[in-house]
Every structure is written in C-alpha cells, then in structure tokens.
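A student in our group prepared the protein record below, which I am reviewing. Thanks in advance; the entry in question is below.
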Amino acid sequence: VLGGEGKKRICLLSGPNMGGKSTLLRQTCIITIMAQMGCYVPAEECKLTPVDRIFTRLGASDRILAGQSTFFVELHETATILHEATPRSLVILDELGRGTATFDGMAIAGAVISQLATTISCRTLFATHYHRLIEEYGSHSHIQLGNMDCIVDPDDERKVTFLYKLVEGACSKSYGLNVARLAQL
C-alpha cells in the first residue's frame, strides 16, 4: 500500500503490454477523487489520506501548431509535476520517456523517479517498460515494485493470459510481440 510515514510512497509498475497498467493508473485517480468527495468506491476497503492535487502524465499528444512535439509536451508536463507536486500529492506517470531513444528515455525516467522519491516524496504510480529502471530502483527504500500479473504457457511462451491484477514484484518481460500477434500483425 502506498502511504504515509514509514511506507513506500512510489510504486514502480511493470507488466505486459495490454496488461492493464494504464487502466489501473486512471482508476486510481478516479477512486481518489470519489473517496475524497465521500462517494462510494468499488472496493472492499479503502483507506486514503487526502491528496492536495493529482498530477497525471498519460498518453501521447502534441501541439504541432505551436511547434511542440509529443516528447516536448511530455517533458513540459513532467517539469510541471516536479515543480508543483508536494508530499501530499498523487502523481501518475505512464511510460515516461518513450518519445526518444531508449537510453535517453531511461535516463529521463530515472532522474524523475529519483526526484520524486528523494526530494518530493509524494505518492506515485510510475508505469514503465524500462526493466533496467526496475533493477536499479527495486531496492530503493521509498520504492516498491508492482506488476500486472499474467500467466505464460510453459509449453508455448507466445501464449500469454492477462490477469489484470496488481501483484507485488517485477515482471521480467513486456510481451510486446504477443500483443502484436493478438492484433494479427
């Protein structure tokens, strides 16, 4: 559980493509808003410390008429998060750094994780396919690892069943080729 003092405040989320990471991020925001308004939330139990703001960096969009690429918009929105988030904020980041080369994207994502964990210390869900980040930050005292569970057929690794369930630990692969196969690509 992401939470208060003594608890890990950042969940570094991995898992297969199409496994439900982005949906989990969006649901977390909606449930947080509903709970703070006093609404019923679809859960057996919900304990939540109120948040002052919810910051999200989801999806891909550009402002091409303003001369701003998808990557620029992503970094501008991330900079806003890093400048304005407080320890009472909820931050949701989905695949930060995908708009550039792998090493550049991984360096940016790593720097953002570091800043969120050590300086801002806000509650964060950070979905990534950068498995090296998971290796690097998996033992950090403020970061817990989570992944969207799946079952891989032991006889045919190309057959993956998505369980759409958040579990502890890291997922070793993204299974992008499996999704391509499902899409008949």
Q: What stands out?
A: Helices lie at 21-37, 70-84, 102-120, 131-137, 176-182. The CA atoms of residues 61 and 70 lie 5 Å apart. The longest strand covers residues 143-152.
